[in-house]
Amino acid sequence: MTLDALLIEPFEKFAFLRRALVACVALAVGGAPLGFFMNQRRMALVSDAMSHAIFPGVAIAFLISGLGVWSLTIGGLTAGTLIALFSVFLSRYTQIKEDAVFTLLFLLSLTSGIVLLSLKGSNIDLMHMLFGDILAIDRDGLIFIAGVTLVTLITLSFIYRGLVLDCFDPDFLRASRRGKMTRQIFFVLFVVNLVAAFQALGTLMALGLMLLPAIASGFWTRRVNTAIPLSIGIAIVSSYAGLLISYYTNTPSGPVVVLFCALICLSSVLFGRCGSFVAGLRKPS
Amino acid sequence: MTEPLLTLRNLSVHYGNRHALQNVSGTFHKGSLTAVAGPNGSGKSTLLKVIAGVIRPDSGLIEFHQGIDGTMAYLPQIAHMQRDFPISVEEVVITGFYPERGEWNAIGRSHYDLARKALQDVGLSGYADRQVSDLSGGEFQRTLFARVIVQNAPIILLDEPFTAVDAETTARLIRLLLKWHEEGRTVICVLHDLLLIQKYFPESMVLQGKCLGSGHTHKLFEQKLLSFDLDMAELYPPDEPATHNHTHAHSHDA
Predict the structure, then answer these.
(1) Measured in whole angstroms, how far is the alpha carbon of residue A228 from the centre of its chain?
(2) Which residue in A193, B2, B146, B181 is a FRET match for B68, CA 20 to 30 A apart?
(3) How many Å apart are CA A88 and CA B5, to the nearest integer?
(4) Distance between CA B124 and CA B146 in Å, rounded?
(5) Is the pLDDT of residue B1 over 70?
(6) Of A197, A234, A242, which Cα lies nearest the Cα of A21?
(7) Cβ contact (<8 Å) for A161 and B88?
(8) B81 and A175 in contact by Cβ < 8 A?
(9) Where are the domains of chain B?
């Protein structure tokens, strides 16, 4: 078998693999930049909690109107927003520690979503919600994901400078009297991208292509202008390699894509150029 | 006395149940160089943030007098910044153009030239491409001063600019500050160091939640509102133990 046949043929042969690849690439292009900023804000744990926060809303939407893209999106957005507001309320008016808030909300969202889903759905529906089914992405799902990516990129171009300042020096941003809605817009983008990723990767892995590449890129470059494209590149390579490996090994595609991405992330943490274990060994003592 | 620039009228700010500022009033004059002094948790940084527009007061208002260009350059406390963000020294200085250029207006060669010139002015030539995470406290503070320079604002607000800065760098930054004063800019600076206040700041405002006094620095020293001998604990009212206040102080003014 030639290299071409090995690397390209599965995608030529099967439309569902092509659709999965396009969906993953779109998720990577839109989601990885958001993951970069979430990681820089030290909000990886919050991201994880948010990815589960959308679950009860999606489950309610499913109970009401099945697996429609738009109803799931509205349900996810509503639940994500409510849970985020609830976390702010708990942090502000009680003495619960911040990481405990997110642990509580993460488990509350996940379990309530499962219970709600069990009222009507089957085990297959539950598995679909938890792990997604990237190979089952249909035309509507693909259009939705591509639309979310397009809106994300356009919006990011409008708020990019403010977003950098909001991460690096939030007081300066506020004093500038510009970019007042930057944080809120970013949050909405993040939740919308989570909902889009949820269609492909399920609630348990929706963050995979957003956050892991962003974490990995931080161990190779220390420039914001190169870290974001690198994050996108890592997410795309993981998607392509993951889909190919899952095809040849007959393993579930979504988890293999995220696993591949996690391995790149782990390798970066160990062997990357900046701040990794190996980089630490090279430093003069 | 020169013409008034901005007047604070009964500003109050609360953090939860704590009063950070209570009915603070005062006037800053055009071209003045004012130190805002007081113990930790006395509301100094809060006052600067209110003037800068970072937080809104719960009550009271700030009046800019007619015909005054109210554009401000604001240097926040280093502690409130994320120093490991992957950004270069030059890029930090360039963020100084954000209030003027916003998201879409181009930042071109002339802006980069100004940024390089500002870095030169603070003694950081050759640092443009360095990452801010690699800088010492003094170098980082100088970078932020370079950002203030490119903002070219008539009002400059500095929040503890000499914290974690060695004597040589402090001297260099003080020279810049005096240059701004000579140029007729209005400088309001939060700081703790009474020696610096006495030597370089003609005007002062002393805070302890409320405004205890403001005006000529030497008069405030005469009135013992600023004093090298004064135990700052004396400023606490008798019904509020110093240790209690101190606990709160860390969360907002550290």
Answers:
(1) 14
(2) B146
(3) 38
(4) 9
(5) no
(6) A242
(7) no
(8) no
(9) 1-70+157-170+186-254, 72-153
Contacts of B104 in chain A (CB under 8 A): 158
**Among candidates B54, B104, B131 on the partner chain, residue whose Cβ is nearest the Cβ of A222:** B131
Q: What is the Cα Rg of chain A in Å?
A: 19
Concatenated DSSP letters of A2-68: -HHHHHHHHHHH-HHHHHHHHHHHHHHHHHHHHHHHHHHTT-HHHHHHHHHHHHHHHHHHHHHHTT-
Question: CB–CB of B195/B224 below 8 Å?
Answer: no
Residue A123 or B116, more confident: B116
Residues of A in Cβ contact (< 8 Å) with B98: 161-162, 165, 172-173, 176, 178-179
A118-150 pLDDT, tens digit each: 887 677 778 888 888 889 898 888 999 999 999
- Look-up: residue for tokens 């069990």? A118
Give the chain B residue nearest A38 (alpha carbons).
Answer: B85
Considering the entire predicted model, what is its pTM?
Answer: 0.85
B216-254 burial, b if ≥16 CB within 10 A, otherwise e? Answer: ebeebbeeebbeeeeeeeebbeeeeeeeebeebbeebbe
Q: How far is B229 from chain A (nearest CA, A)?
A: 35
- For residue B45, give the chain A residue with the closest CA: A171
3-class state of residue A89 by DSSP: helix
The answer to whether residues A66 and A129 touch, using CB atoms and an 8 Å cutoff, is: no
Domains of chain A: 3-282 (1.10.3470.10)
> Do B8 and B65 touch, CB atoms closer than 8 A?
no
pLDDT at B220 over 90: no
- Can you tell me which residue has the tokens 């800088």? B135
Residue with tokens 């939030």: A170
Question: Hey, is B60 helix, strand or coil?
Answer: strand
Instruction: Say yes or no to pLDDT of B236 above 60.
Output: no
User: Chain B: residue nearest A41 by CA?
Assistant: B82
Cβ-count burial A98-136 (b if 16+ within 10 Å, e if not): eeebbeebbebbbebbbebbeeebeeebbebbbbbbbbe
Task: Give the minimum alpha-carbon distance from A100 to chain B in angstroms, rounded to a whole number.
Answer: 20
The string of DSSP codes covering B80-117 is GS-TTSS-BHHHHHHGGGHHHHTTTS---HHHHHHHHH
Residues of A near B (Cβ–Cβ under 8 Å) read: 40-41, 158-162, 164-165, 167-179, 218, 221-224, 227
Q: A103 or B159: which carries more pLDDT confidence?
A: B159
Nearest to A152 by CA among A265, A18, A37, A230: A37
Residue A236, helix vs strand vs coil:
helix
B122 band by pLDDT with thresholds 50, 70 and 90? very high
CA distance B23 to A126: 58
Nearest to B85 among A161, A167, A177 (CB): A167
Residue A279 to chain B, least CA–CA distance (Å): 15
Helix axes A182-205, A208-217, angle to 10 degrees: 110
